[in-house]
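ok so I'm stuck.
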Amino acid sequence: MNGLQISEQFFKECGLPAFQASAPEMMPELTFGLAGQGSECFGFDDEVSRDHDWGAGFCVWVPTERFRDWAPKLQAIYDSLPSTYAGFPVKGRAVSGEQRIGVQDGDMFFYQFIGNRGVPAEPFGWLRTGEEAYAVATNGKLFYAGGEPADDSAAPDAAAAFWTGGAAAPAKTKFARDYTELKKGYPEDIRVKKIAARAVKMAQSGQYNYVRCMGRGNRVAAFQAMAEFVKETCSMIHLLNHAYCPFYKWMWRSTKDQPVLGAGTAAALEALTADPYAAGAKDMIEEICIVVKKELQRQGLTDIDEDFLEPHGARIMARIKDPQVAGLPISYG
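replied:
not stuck anymore, here's the structure
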């Protein structure tokens, strides 16, 4: 079991009964789950992850207008829970100083990552920060929201679909509504704008600059160009899947899980980086770009058949409907 699964069990067996017994009047406005910083929130933790800052725990997201009055009581309930679970330490207790788990202001949870107290209200709000911030703000899982149990057997059909990642059900707390909406990915114009930027940067870093740097014998610059190509490619795959790309430590791992081009591209990148100076690296980069080009065509984002990705940027930009977004520099985003 990974940390997310252990934390959900800990919540169901220990946390939920305690909060229902001690704060029943607050439950309709609370949201419980696990999201934010930490490999366990992405479901990427393993044995190596357990050497520090790892254990069972969950978040209690409180409405901003209730936080000052309710937080002390709610944190006291959390602190009363067992200090260990399934042989692992419990995080988020007040005495530990842990700020990422436990009782939190719901709006401030989003603000600390994306600079908005929930879903951005206008296009440029989505561009205020990077994809990795949105990935952190929307990873993990909600366990319980506004009195709606996460147990599928105890929930109405629509709610059961929500908890299992199926069709959206009406969320009963602001936090759950914001989390659910953000998790859908970028609005289409923003997604398309970012895809255009990724196409141009993949071409510049991999198809153009890597080759030129190798031709000059500048291996350091070639290595940097390849690293940029890998980063832009991972981001492109996430955007093609309407998903957010995590920061560098987890972007390749997350790419493997994406249903569209994910496993194949991740394998190709792994082979490419095994020897960044191999004679066949140029051809491997080209093969990756051709696969991406075909997916761009399949999604109706470009209508030209050019293997070099840079010209596709302008064609992709032409699909943007919002004039302000369409007027941004092609590499922005």
